[in-house]
Amino acid sequence: SKKRGLSLDEKREKMLQIFYDSQDFYLLKELEKLGPKKGVISQSVKDVIQSLVDDDLVLKDKIGTSVYFWSLPSCAGNQLRTVYKKLDSDLQSSKKRLVELVQQCDALKKGREESEEREEALGELKAIEQKYNELKEEMGQFADNDPAAFEAMKQATEVAHAAANRWTDNIFTLRQWCSNNFPQAKEQLEHMYNEVGITDDFDYLELPAVVPLGPVGDQLLEGDS
Predict the structure, then answer these.
(1) Where is the Leucine zipper with capping helix domain (predicted)?
(2) C-alpha 105: how far from its chain's center?
(3) Sign of dihedral through CA atoms 12, 14, 19, 25?
């Protein structure tokens, strides 16, 4: 069967072992020659070493024009101790935050214990909310009697009335123009007028008298005065 390649962690361990065994300094090209002896192909040595440098498990320094790499067992121990201290600090902070949250939770529970008084208060609150919704719905039914809404409807009616009579003027003008220019087609024109609803009783619209607000509207006006 085909031999399985080394994982990144395994490669890192193999390369670290080179440093620990010799406790010496190396150039990258030297490590690329030693890597295959540990099962790490030379093409991946550079990336493996860089990952160890990033984690502070391997140190590097430039001396002249050359870059040297080295690592001692104590380096790994120091790194592990640093990681341990940080994790321990995070753990202590999390424990402290947990205690604070538990205390806040206990404080919020005070006054909310199950009791007859609390159940009664919740019942009253629910009844008030239901009554509020009923009144809100009832007020919506009276919206047509609201003075502001009534005034808006009145103005809209006046605008529509003026527009309708403008079109009545236009129809009369067009009818007169047709009669003057096509006198020989009088009967056909009259027939067409009747078909579209322009009969002898066709005339301008009259704006109806303003309808009073009614009892509900009067009450609202009296309440405002």
Answers:
(1) 149-205
(2) 29
(3) negative
